[in-house]
Amino acid sequence: MDLGDKIRHFRMAKGYSQEDIAEFLQISRNSYMKIESGNTKNAYEKLDKIAEILKVDKWEILSHKEKEVVYVHTNNQGHVANSGTVTQNIATDKDLTEKCKNLEIQVAVLEERLCSKDKEIELLQKLLEGKV
Questions:
Q1: What residues contact 130, with CB distance under 8 A and at least 6 apart?
Q2: How far apart are CA 21 and CA 49, in angstroms?
Q3: CATH class (in words) of the domain with range 3-63
Q4: What is the pTM of this model?
Q5: Distance separating alpha carbons of residues 33 and 30, to the nearest angstrom
Q6: How far apart, in whole angstroms, are the C-alpha atoms of residue 34 and residue 103?
């Protein structure tokens, strides 16, 4: 993962567009695109300002790594059917916290729907039994 990829990862994680960052840096979008694509040498010159905009330490950007996950899938006779590696970005704590909050909200909504369905089923059963 080169510097441009790392910068892109943090920019996207923070929800900024390329235009947003280019505007903060007071450069054109095309110039910023060159930073993310690795087609310019001034990425390091702009790193302090980019880190400031993204509210992360420049060393966090520089040290950001991908994680490689090795997987092996076996068939029902125990023979290797498929194997390989998958490269994944390591999520930041803020990313994980945000995802957890979103999942908690989704769980609460689904629990509410289940409760509503349970009440509806109970009412329908009473209707079928002639108790209502």
A1: none
A2: 10
A3: mainly alpha
A4: 0.48
A5: 5
A6: 36
- The residue among 23, 86, 77, 74 whose CA lies nearest residue 50 is 23
Task: Give the residue ranges of DSSP H helices in the chain.
Answer: 3-13, 18-25, 29-37, 43-54, 58-63, 93-129
Domain ranges of the chain: 3-63, 91-132
Torsion region of 20: left, alpha or beta (phi above 0 gives left; psi -120 to 50 gives alpha):
alpha
pLDDT in tens, 53-103: 999 888 888 886 654 444 455 566 655 555 444 444 455 666 777 778 888
Query: How far is CA 126 from its chain centroid?
Result: 46
Reported as type and span, the H/E element at residue 38 is none
Return the residue matching tokens 């923070």.
Answer: 14
Q: Residue 53: how many CB atoms within 10 A of its CB? A: 18
Dihedral angle of Cα 16, 55, 34, 85, to the nearest 10 degrees: -80
